[in-house]
Amino acid sequence: MDLNTGFLKNDFYSSNWDVVVIGAGAAGLMTSLELPSKLKILLLNRNTSKRSSSRWAQGGMAAVTRVEDSEDIHALDTIKAGAGLCDPEAVQMFVESAPRLVDRLLKLGMEFDRTSGKLSTTLEAAHTHRRVLHVKDRTGKALVDVLNEQVDRRDNVLHQRGIRVTQIWVEGGRCLGVQVLDGPALRWINAKAVVLATGGGGHLFANTTNPIQAAGEGIALAWRAGAVIEDLEFFQFHPTALKLNGAPSFLISEALRGEGAVLVDSLGESPVAQLEGKDLASRDQVSRALFKAMQKQKVDHVGLDVKSIGVENVEARFPSIFQRCRELGLDPLKEVIPVAPSAHYWMGGVYTNLKAQTNITGLFAIGEVACTGLHGANRLASNSLMECLVFANQMRDIELNNFQTSDLSVKNSSFKKVNLRFSKKQGTQYLIKEIEKLRQLCWREAGVDRSQRGMSAALAKVKRDYENLLNEPLLNLVFSQSKNAINQFDEIARRDLNLLLDLTNRQMASALMLEACLFREESRGGHFRDDFPNSVPFWQCHTRQVKGMHIHTRPVSDMFFEFKNR
To answer: EC number(s) for this protein (predicted)?
Structure first.
């Protein structure tokens, strides 16, 4: 039977699923394709549309496809960008798998740009060779469209949109399923395994290139379930997001700089001239250089000059960026594009091994929500989309014979109507304002430039605000719901609950991030503190956070990386 057309709602809830995949960006979609076809897979997407951070990715995917390049060089570039915190075995698996995954994508129907019949590649920051494959400046969208089409063809995958995961079900150290809010109904779904593919947390910050759903929800879900969280202090701030009054932040791909565009400050000089790689130095270095220049000159942006690329190349290679600028009244061929650093990518996340397995049996994490050891303290440009594919590919040999499920009977379920309300008089508006205040706080105290004083005060406030919400009856109902219960919310209760979950998940993820930032008393990669501005050998280690334990460290793997062509 075709699950996508033949399953009724009751069948969907009464079924014993082999795997529940949470999130339908590149990581979730590719995981659904790579899991063995004999497994029954439920793909849950909180969005009713096809929005995901993956679709917003402009630059491309890094893989060695040119004869003058090599996997060893790609590995060295990745390790150098990672500022001493990359785990070598993760890097080795990644660079060796990436070319094979390019072939896999081509077979699935991905149409990369080509020049004279050969795959086109571009140069991006901190790469020593042109190895970034692309589809104009819409690579993420092209990838997600191809994967969506393939998932829709699979008889063993049921893709359900508009369903929010509210808890991960764990008993005795084993993951048994998830709790979901499906429209007005709060209920449980059982499964032998669960895969987190919820994306990152850029929207924790006021300035970000990420969509609104990238707010650290997967981190909060995993931490509450008892999963190990690593390296949350390392957040990548992309140097060049559009900065225009009244316009939403929009990523201006660094592939433009790879093709010859240059950064200029308000005096018409280069703000990155002192960096070894200048305009193509690593993202953390460029972002800090721009931040300092903006502070010194008391402006809120610098300029990106693309005129040297030429009109034909800009329009052909970067149509989305060119069109977006024109819509906002900018002509990039006549004036500089105003840009500023913006929260872009979370290097930290849920700790996994090379098989994407967390410390909880049956719980996996793939994509930006995961911390695999690949990126270290700073991600190399265009390694992220490919990471989704490489680690999803690791799921192809998953064996679930020893994994347990728990029986949930729809017939024996108890139904309860819920008309509770959020206790504050302002209700919805209060929660929306609190979310925005939290975003401003995180940007101000945990953005590009950090210090002990600001972060300590911010952490205390976030914890206090979070604890004040824990006794809300709506939240208590979620966290105390029995496995056979089905709670049916009226419209106002459902709206309040969704916003409460949004706020408390953001508070939890923000608090964990701030705690990690305060713990690491140095500057490294995507973590810069003006009170500890230098890297310290003592801190060449990963930070770890686990529910019920004090924050601690894990050593970087000391595996010797065997380069084949030194």
So the answer is: 1.4.3.16
